[in-house]
Design a protein that fits this description.
With about 900 residues, the protein is an alpha/beta fold. Among the domains are: about 130 residues, no CATH class; about 220 residues, Rossmann fold (3-Layer(aba) Sandwich). Helix content is about 60%, strand content about 10%. InterPro entries: CHAT_dom, TPR-like_helical_dom_sf.
């Protein structure tokens, strides 16, 4: 056995040496073969090397194992013979040895066919057969013969142990065959050649797995073959298929691949060919995009760069001329005009030529004001139109552009979409709106600023409220339209708030309802005294309906400036207050500092731990620092603008409506807090009792609703001390039991659902029959989908989307004794999507919520003080129900008592500052 092994090793070394010599000969052919005689000499040398290698190994291999001989000897030698054929053909060495090569290839095919009879050797044998097949056709064999020879090794496919591997090898064969046929078509022009090429490449693509390295090239070659046939035959399906294959090739191609610029160029050319055929300007725009990408990926100094730049320039010229010829009202016109504007804007950014900026502004204006086209495209065009006008210091034009952009916002999130989709559509426009408000204030257009601020906030909540609009007057005037309104609004709300993926027919039905809704509104607005039905309010309407017990302050935070608009009952115009010592970047920094501080102190979820150790002694870089910065930069300048020079004897209300990063900062608690000072510094609560609102319209609607007589108070208490998988919070039992006791003492109806009694179904049902609800539980804010935020009950989470779907006719007030119930999505800060806002949308007049986690140790005390104030107020006024309009004062009183007890330490601030009041 040892002798046999030694002989086998020696034989293998001989064979490897022969292979190395063959590789050397192949190298010589590639580099040095410059004449027919030289090629013949090298071919003879190769054949002699093969013969020598066989003679050196055949005796040992045949003596030891015929199978091993076939597996190693034949396969190894004839693989090189096949490669020789490819090398000589690729170098196009005149008429060199065609007969000899054909003979060698034919012998090679015959040998590998013999090898295929052994299943163990099929894989190697197939690999040998692949390279030479397409070359054999090119030299002297017709297509049918090649197909027959190619199919022979795979005739027993069903018997093979690994079909996937065989298919892969067959696909490679098909790829080479198709590519070669397509190349010959370039010389012969034969439609048979190009059709056979397409057939082979289509088969290769069908067999190759998507992640195979050859797939991008196969798709690209197939796309090219289809494009060539389109040029000859003019069949539109060919060029459309070519585009699809080129797109897939680009999609699957590796970043940085050397062929990527060429593939993008071919894709662009295909769009160009289709544009020339059917005239769709979308195709020329696509062609430009791909030509641009090809240019960007082409290295500087590349030989193809001049031609690609020339192609790109020609594309721009074609689109420019085509847009001029497009008919008015064409659906794609806004997109094409916007693209032209982008070209001029790009050149302006490079050259700073005023004429380019003016041209860009003009084309963007045309694009934005088209009656047809995508609202998203028109909105982006309006945004860029405003940018150009502002850059040209044409502020009147900039205001016009911003007005168009804001009017398009509702169209971008129309009722034909689910709420999740509408929120996704609104992720970008908030920055534009804040910039629009800033420009309006710069130019002194305070009413425009107010209207734009209001129209661009809480669009989804506004749509929900519109679907629930009371229609008593419409019912009296036109019962038929009133019934249509009720039926259609109910259907739209139900389908818009579904959580399931919508089938195509459902989507179409929803879109149809949205169109009917717009038609119905037009019809209702045609009635006398209904011309403004569900229209956004004008500034004059807003100012005439303000509450008389305090100002509303809107804080607009943009990259350009920071400003406040104060709305005061009895004044015909908003008061503009500049916040010159505060910037958008300041707000971002403070927000990040707060988040870091809360995370470091583990104030992210309600629990029963006392985290006071180490907090009180921290240096003044935590919450005290943040509150002082907010006081100096925002709140005190606003109070000065309102004329609050000293603390009043009787404090009024103040409603804050904030934007951007300020939505995550405690404006209501801004002030100077020093635990070591004998006299406390100034703070917001010294001057006013603070509340927050999502937008002005929400507050005005609550004012109207509050005028109606309400039934006696019925309060629902929900306690979840052990909701899994969260940590136990036993303080919720103490909290709700204390409130229950106080309510019974005051003869107010109260129901407590605790622990396993608090299932989602029971809670949902009980909410419908109780005007007040107190929820003491864990809550969470979903990091990416705010509508999936919710409260944890015994058998799962009650999500925000489920809450807002409820019709709660008795809803009056909600106390949310849980963590982070007023923290929304950072990317949707101006949509105010959090649990507390959801309760307002569900119909509650006011809400107590939290900005971060509250302490289980003090939550019962805050709650008992809150309800104690309301019960005393009820007694003092001689009424027999709780007054939700006094809730803001009740919370102010409760938090002041905690502050008086704990002082102004960091520990104290982290305890009471998170509590806030929202709404009326």
């Amino acid at each position: 056995m040892a002798t046999l092994s030694s002989e086998l090793i020696k034989a293998d070394q001989n064979l490897t040496g022969a292979t190395i010599r063959l590789d050397g000969i192949l190298f010589d052919i590639t580099i040095e073969c410059s004449s027919e005689d030289a090629a013949h000499s090298l071919l003879e040398g190769l054949q002699m090397s093969v013969a020598d290698a066989r003679e050196q190994t055949v005796n040992t291999l045949e003596r030891t194992s015929p199978t091993l001989w076939k597996y190693h000897g034949v396969i190894g030698l004839y693989r090189n013979m096949g490669h020789l054929a490819i090398t000589i053909q690729s170098e196009e060495a005149s008429e060199v040895g065609f007969l000899e090569l054909t003979k060698e290839i034919s012998e090679h095919l015959d040998i590998t066919a013999v090898v295929h009879s052994n299943k163990r050797q099929h894989k190697i044998g197939t690999e040998v057969g692949v390279p030479s097949l397409s070359i054999a056709y090119t030299i002297s064999v017709d297509f049918e013969e090649v197909q027959q020879r190619r199919s022979a090794p795979f005739s027993r496919l069903d018997e093979l142990p690994d079909k996937t591997e065989v298919q892969r090898l067959s696909a490679i064969d098909l790829f080479h065959t198709g590519t070669t046929l397509a190349e010959r078509f370039e010389e012969t022009g034969s439609m048979v050649d190009i059709s056979n090429a397409i057939e082979s490449l289509q088969s290769a693509v069908a067999l190759l797995p998507e992640d195979h390295p050859l797939m991008p090239s196969s798709l690209a070659n197939l796309g090219m073959a289809l494009a060539r046939r389109f040029e000859r035959a003019g069949d539109l399906t060919d060029i459309t298929a070519a585009i699809q294959h080129f797109q897939k090739s680009v999609e699957l191609g590796a970043d940085g691949h050397a062929d990527m610029p060429s593939r993008l160029t071919n894709l662009g050319n295909s769009f160009l060919r289709r544009f020339e055929r059917i005239g769709d300007l979308a195709d020329i725009s696509a062609a430009i995009e791909h030509f641009q990408n090809a240019v960007e990926l082409t290295p500087e100094g590349d030989a193809d760069m001049p031609s690609r730049l020339n192609d790109l320039g020609n594309m721009f010229l074609r689109r420019f001329r085509s847009v001029e010829l497009a008919p008015d009202g064409h659906a794609g016109l806004s997109s094409w005009l916007s693209n032209l504007g982008r070209l001029f804007l790009m050149r302006f950014m490079e050259t700073k030529r005023v004429g380019d900026c003016q041209a860009a502004s003009l084309y963007y204006c045309f694009a934005a004001t088209q009656n047809t086209g995508s609202p998203a495209v028109r909105h982006e065009a309006a945004q860029r139109w405003a940018y150009c006008a502002f850059s040209l210091e044409n502020y009147a034009e900039a205001l016009r552009a911003y007005g168009v952009a804001i009017e398009l916002l509702p169209l971008m999130s129309n009722l034909g979409q689910r709420i999740h989709t509408r929120h996704a559509r609104l992720l970008g426009p908030s920055d534009l709106t804040r910039q629009a408000v800033a420009v309006a204030l710069i130019t002194g257009s305070n009413n425009n600023a107010l209207e734009w601020f209001e129209r661009s906030r809480c669009l989804i909540w506004t749509q929900i409220n519109q679907l629930r609009t009371p229609i008593d007057l419409l019912q009296q005037r036109n019962p038929r339209l009133a019934q249509r309104f009720l039926a259609l609004s109910t259907a739209l709300e139900s389908s818009g708030t579904t959580q399931q993926f919508a089938a195509e027919d459902h989507v179409l039905s929803q879109l149809k309802r949205a169109q009917e809704w717009e038609q119905l509104l037009t019809e209702i607005r045609g009635l006398a005294n209904f011309k403004d039905f569900l229209r956004p309010p004008q500034a004059s309407n807003i100012l005439s309906e303000l509450p008389n017990d305090g100002p509303i302050v809107l804080i607009n935070l943009s990259r350009t400036s920071c400003d406040a608009l104060a709305l005061i009952h009895g004044l015909d115009d908003p008061i503009h207050i500049r916040l010159n010592n505060f910037t958008y970047e300041d707000a971002e920094l403070l927000r990040n500092q707060l988040w870091y501080h809360l995370t470091h102190e583990k104030f992210c979820i309600r629990d029963s731990d006392d985290r006071s150790d180490g907090i009180a002694s921290r240096p003044d870089t935590g919450l005290r620092h943040i509150l002082r910065e907010l006081w100096n930069g925002i709140v005190w300048p606003i109070f000065q603008g309102l004329g609050y020079s000293s603390t009043p004897a009787h404090r009024k209300r103040i409603w804050w409506c904030v934007t951007g990063p300020l939505a995550f900062l405690p404006i209501h608690a801004a002030g100077v807090y020093d635990p070591n000072a004998h006299v406390s510094g100034p703070c917001a609560s010294d001057f006013a009792v603070s509340s927050y609102i999502p937008n002005v319209t929400t507050l005005l609607e609550k004012l109207i609703d509050n005028e109606f007589e309400r039934p006696e108070t019925k309060i629902l208490l929900l306690s979840q001390p052990n909701a899994l998988p969260h940590a136990p919070i036993p303080g919720t039992i103490t909290e709700t039991q204390a409130v229950l006791r106080r309510m019974k003492e005051a003869d107010i109806q109260a129901v407590l659902l605790e622990d396993e009694e608090g299932t989602k179904n029971r809670v949902t049902e009980a909410l419908r029959s109780h005007g007040w609800v107190h929820i003491a539980s864990h809550a969470s804010q979903h990091p990416t989908d705010p509508l999936k935020s919710g409260f944890y009950f015994h058998n799962g989470q009650l999500e925000l989307l489920e809450i807002i779907r409820q019709r709660l006719p008795s809803a009056e007030f909600a106390y949310l004794s849980a963590c982070q119930t007023s923290v929304g999505d950072e990317n949707l800060s101006d949509e105010v999507v959090h649990l507390a806002a959801g309760m307002l949308a569900a119909g509650y007049q006011g809400v107590v919520a939290t900005m971060w986690s509250i302490k289980d140790q003090y939550a019962p005390e805050v709650a008992e003080n809150f309800y104690g104030y309301l019960l005393q107020d009820m007694k003092d006024r001689g009424i027999h129900r709780l007054d939700s309009r006094r809730a803001a004062y009740a919370l102010d009183d409760a938090t002041r008592k905690i502050r008086a007890k704990l002082g102004d330490s960091e520990h104290s601030l982290l305890t009471w500052v998170p509590y806030i009041h929202l709404g009326l």
